[in-house]
Design goal:
Blueprint: H1 2-14, E1 18-20, E2 23-27, E3 30-34, E4 41-47, E5 57-64, E6 67-72, E7 78-82, H2 88-95, E8 99-100, E9 121-124, E10 127-130, E11 139-145, E12 148-154, E13 159-163, H3 181-189, E14 192-193
Antiparallel strand pairs: 1-4, 2-3, 3-8, 4-5, 5-6, 6-7, 9-10, 10-14, 11-12, 12-13
């Protein structure tokens, strides 16, 4: 529990990971709805085993400063609860929406849904691409290291790496589950090189 609390503080101060403020949020096996008026922000993260023993795992952070809650994206269990009494109703409304497992057919946005990709397009390095809908659970991470820039595309179960200079998929590091194959293919089909 202490490691998760320390992790949470480090995450918030570093600005790591994506943050969302409202709507249907999916990460790993967890689906949660955050009302627009709740003022609660959501971050989706994958923690190493040092911070989430014994093996590491996927978590969703919920914050309405100074209140915080950490939920396992694999089980839906609350792992850390530091909610102030005045914020309890807002957090209870959100935690009541937690579901774990495959979402209902049709409840996921693009690229799981086959509707047209959203505009405007995102950019990174030499790439442009359609941004996944928040409800898809797919998160984009702009990364660099070892002389490479790459876009990491992940829903916590499947992960795809794209070279941000060439648009090539880094096959050796990419793992896509069968349930996610079509959605990830739809995303890749939107990736173009900037001119």
């Amino acid at each position: 529990m202490l490691l998760l609390a320390l992790s949470f503080r480090a995450l918030l101060s570093s600005g790591a990971g994506g943050t969302d403020t409202a709507g249907l949020v999916r990460w790993g096996d967890l689906v949660i709805r955050v009302p627009e008026n709740s003022m609660v922000t959501v971050s989706r993260e994958s923690l190493p085993k040092e911070e989430y023993p014994p093996d590491g795992g996927l978590v969703v952070y919920l914050e309405k400063s100074p209140s915080r809650l950490i939920v396992s994206a694999e089980t839906g269990y609350v792992l850390y609860d530091a909610i102030k009494e005045e914020d309890r109703a807002a957090f209870d409304e959100i935690t009541a929406t937690i579901t774990v497992g495959a979402p209902r057919q049709g409840s996921l946005g693009w690229p799981y849904a086959t509707d047209a990709p959203p505009e405007p397009r995102g950019t990174y390095g030499g790439l442009t691409y359609a941004e996944p809908d928040l409800s898809s659970g797919i998160q984009l991470h702009k990364m660099s290291g070892y002389g490479l820039e790459y876009l990491r595309v992940s829903n916590g179960r499947s992960t795809l790496f794209i070279n941000a200079r060439t648009g090539a998929v880094l096959e050796q590091d990419t793992v896509i589950l069968a349930d996610d194959q079509a959605a990830f293919e739809r995303f890749v089909a939107t990736v173009d090189l900037r001119r």
